[in-house]
Structures
1.
Amino acid sequence: MPVDAEARARRLLIALLFVGTALNYVDRQVLALLKPTLEAEFGWSDQEFAHLGSVFQLSAAFALLAVGWFVDRFGVRLAYGIAVAVWSAAGMAHAAAANVSQFVVARSVLAVAESVNTPAAVKAAATYLPLTQRSFGLGMVNTAPNIGAILTPLLIPPLALAFGWKAAFLVTGALGFVWLALWIGGTRRLAPVGVAKKAALDGNWAQLLSDRRTWTVVGAKALTDCVWWFVLFWSTDFLVKTFGLTQAEVGLPSALIFALAAVGAFSCGLLFPALLKRGMSINKARKTSMALYAVLILPIPLALQAPSAMAAALIIGLALLAHQGFSTNIFGLAADTVPPARVASVMALGGVAGNLTGTGIIELTGWCLTNGVGYWPMFAIAAGAYLTALAFIHVMQPVIRAADEG
């Protein structure tokens, strides 16, 4: 392929991964944003809403046990395309649900298909993007959930108020099929780069689970992903209950939270390469970047004492900025240090861990609210999670080295 055409194909790949990941989070966030409306229609309690969230997390966790193999075995193009088609159909199926059981079925299918997204995106970056573009590509991919999360609270409540809650699920699901047509046509000319050219399915489960690089990613995801799931699933409810917001009023502060999160993901795509250019090693650049983000999240408990919804959103948004910057570094750590043929499997295992701890914090929140404890335990967990994760990473990999360095 000519150089210019190859460069265009890679830019298109980044764009498609960005949009696909944004849609992934649009579809999963619709339920949380419509909680007040659905709660009134179906009579859900906080604990029942927590259980519905747990169904999603556990379904995704169990699916991720096979997702890594699925993506590594069949390749990014086919695996990701199938996943988007299935999760888009499942998202639209929510509109047909008439009771909690039917929501559970639709939510479970959505979770299984959406679990493919992150392993496939990281695998695509590791396979098709050179090291000089990979960090930027991963930064854009990790920015995408926040763009989806910014647009969703701005668009979904007005759409639901104008046309009913079912329209929200139908419209967001249909967008996935538009993306699928672009994916099929836009990725046909991509060619693997670097060591990925020679990579076959590398190793077995014994090798995967005996590698410290695998457990570094798994542990870091377990410690930090729970914070993301807590904010994604419960922040709307926190703002509504704490500040008395209506369904129509909650969109702007929710959008602010995820706008700041987008800055965090994008900033890592710029910060890490900048540190490398200053002469830092991969090890020092990754850990310095992670340390900066870990410190930024420490003030999140102040949201509990905020004087207004926008002030609370600003504090929570700063924490999500830190989360996304830290999370993008975890993605980069996996893409840089794990052999390309194992990347999707390692990210899938990390996703399992993150979904399980996400289930735990979602259930803990439901229990705390039901029993009058309030939101403070979850904010305290969030504040300390990232320094703990950084310490874990340093213990597991005192010196981070690129995969092709041994």
2.
Amino acid sequence: MEDAKKYIEDVLETVKERDPHEEEFYQAVKEIFDSLAPYLAEHPKYQQFGILERLVEPDRFISFRVPWVDDQGAVQVNRGYRVQFNAAIGPYKGGLRFHPTVNSSIVKFLAFEQIFKNALTGQPIGGGKGGADFDPKNKSNAEIMRFTQSFMTELSKHIGPNVDVPAGDIGVGGREINYMVGQYRKLRGSSEAGVFTGKGVDIGGSLTRAESTGYGVIYFVENMLKEFNESLTGKKIIVSGSGKVSIYAMEKAIELGARVVACSDSSGYIYDEKGIDLETVKRLKEVEGKRISAYAEEHDHSSFYGGEKIWQVACDIALPCATQNELDENDASTLIHNGVSIVAEGANMPCTLKAVEQFRENHVGFAPSKAANAGGVAVSALEMAQNSARVSWTFEEVDRQLKEIMQNIFDQSLSAGRQYKCEDNLIDGANIAGFKRVADAMIAQGVL
């Protein structure tokens, strides 16, 4: 065991020394590698093949200029990225994020997490991620179209249905993906539906894709509860964010009998003891584009807490579904004090390492993002399968497969955690199960 720990420490130190400014990337690597010591101790072949050293270096890191013209005729320039991290089990697969905080560390951490998340789904897809430091807020539709087309002009050189298959993420929804599809088709002079997922249904997209990440989180939590012969019925839930992941996590939770009492956006959170009226949230956020505070103006029995974090609300289940590192150790302490029993990550790495440590030490059921929010990429893989076969499955059929995949991810994570005496810890179990699939594929293909 000590040799395995020393091997992990040496690789982590190399990561820190090589890119000291990439804090999010280092955090993601450390979270996964810290789980692997018992597995590596039993299987020294991974050190012999230099698997950890190879895993932390992407196959390629692409950075490029994205010039575009705003509505006033002024030229603007943003920076675009695509990280093609690991393709041992299939083409690179991962979303594109448009947000002013996007930088090399963010896209690398997202792409690294994606390797293991994709492996857990059981689908033949590798890990990648990308995006740009472009802020779509307060931009006109024409500006978003021009930026997206410029972005795709460069990215098109590096992607393809058997090479790299992007999807959406924060700031990139169906509209942006559709623009990318159109620009890619124009540049390539051919129709290749399978090169993007998250497309509109009328151009080859899959039903259930919009709902998949949120639904998947709840399916995972449902499996956690079943281990204790419990269900979601009557559980009090809070959900950070009010985008697609949050909305559809709330929708499925309510459908299964839970009571969602709070959700948020970057301005603050709303609390409704009677239970959030989801149709109001959907209208305000998806149709009218308003702040979540408008909910309290329409529902007298609710309250809006501006500039405050949602984690002070007492609940049975907390679902961080907004963005990375949104829940820190102080928030974890508050949730634990108020009696939380399960925390499931709907966003990518929304809990800091110290927050996760607190949940583990206090025996709070914790579902890591690479397992709990894998529903989105799972359905993306199903969309790729439909595109390849030129068929379209029903909403019910895709949802059935999604539910099965989430159960399989839970089962893999639980089994691996128990096998390596991780006290049924889903974090360690998910990391070991995902690592094993990728690392074995890398060894089988030689040193590449």
3.
Amino acid sequence: MEHLFGQDWEIISAGGATGEAFFATNENQKLFLKRNSSPFLAVLSAEGIVPKLIWTKRMENGDVITAQQCLNGREFEPKEMAQDRAAKLLKKIHESRPLLTMLERLGKTPYGSSQMLLEVESTLDEALLTLKAVKTSLSFLKREGSNIQCEEWAVCHGDVNHNNWLLSDTDELYLIDWDGAMIADPALDLGLLLYWYIPRENWSMWLKQYGAKLTPELELRMKWYTIAHTLLSVQWHKNKNRIKEMDHWLNYLTTLN
């Protein structure tokens, strides 16, 4: 990575699970570098959803290095998720035809309730399947699965946690970390955001900012995807031996049923 820059640049790891991300800094500029980032990044940049893509370079070994503008800013606070700017950015993403077209070109196919239920059933281990909260949740998914219908697929982020929302020093809001991007029911993103951050009595108001109406059908879809996502999170944390986090999401399941 160092040979891409002159000696006045410092290259340091940006951390993360893959070890493929770096910061490059000198006196006047700071870039966020990533090795073998998806071509999807270019469309996200063009749509103004992530910080600007500065350049892309293909290396002799076939690796592709991307450099993005590295902005000064901060994570969105949990309470700020109620703001209309979060709702409007998520709506822009869900309505973006260029994003959807690019994921389709990359070979992505819709990830609906049947695919997600199959993933849940094949992922949960025998020990978790003996727990009451897990059994109750799985029964709900199976019982309501045929009632979960998506009329219009969209690009979904899949992890709308507040720490993936970046507010720049110039007051621009971005949604970052798109490694889990999928073509799915918008109710997946909506359910996670509303259940995690918005009091139930304010759901209708938040969805009005987004441009949707809270109907029994949408409410069921959001609940279904949130429960399925939580079950997968429980198993993921267990696999990583993060027992405290696993217990947190197991307890959270009981609030959803």
4.
Amino acid sequence: MLGLFTPSRKQSLTGLSAVVTGGSRGLGLVIAEQLVLRRCAVTIAARDGEELDRAREYLTRGRTGAAVRTVRCDVTERSQVSALMGEAAQAQGGLDVVVANAGIIQVAPLDALGPEDFASASGTIFMGSVHTALEALPWLRRSPAGGRLALVGSVGGLVAAPHLLPYSCAKFAVAGLAEGLHAELAGSSVSVTAVHPGLMRTGSHLAAEFGGQHRREFGWFSAAAGSPLLSMDARRAAARIVTAVERRRTRIVLTPAAKAADLGRGVAPVLTTKLTGLMSRALPSAPFEGDASPMTPGREVEEEADQGLPPVWRRLRTWGSALNDRASARLNQRGPRPGHTAG
């Protein structure tokens, strides 16, 4: 029947039109890079115009014929997302692929968080995904190739992560949105892929915000996110994500640790919850009243991150952060041109 998805529909992404929200740095940037490498016409969207300019330079450097556009867009504002989709469709002759990736990360114990932190995470991560999906769908339904929508969740949206509660709550909502959209669109020309990455070496520790004992929170998060034992190379992750979208997979979970956590929650949910409780006890406690710092960006915390840390923590942070620190400059987290390491 005309308009219904069938396996014979075009699988290759070559020549298709794509939009990536949160595409100026980190995971969004390397997802956009993979789409460019697969010869898509790509529009990347983010709030920071300077970041977008650097990202566009990176995506087009040395790539003759690469079609990359940038649009400033705050995904918490539905009108801006509507304008983004319309501009991209008009410039690129329609929309075939949309990746909802925009997000924020707040790292802090519960006692250092307030309702505003949950609202901020929900507004950007969940409502940003809702706005992106609702505004993209009318265009994706018109795609001759059959539209593809990907929502980037997280292992934190499959298993609640301690000291990441606003983030986890918002990512759980994204997971529900992806499953619901897949059901609602079953039999249509649009496929929906739920993406649940584990820790990746994207330099996200510099873009995240830290509260409570912010130096110690930065220490454990940057070490874990950069550890070769726990995290995954960002470009490798992006390649697998885009392949999953290309093949119209329903769901992809990345990193062995994330897969183990997902399996554990399904098979032994009570035990998994107890284990996350034990993890929480190993993390920095909330400071005494009056000693807590406001939420502070990782770029600001980094300069003083080792002050006051026990020697063991300091060595662990230095070792674990090494790969992530290098990724931060490559993936536009620090400010210099992406693709160039600092120093």
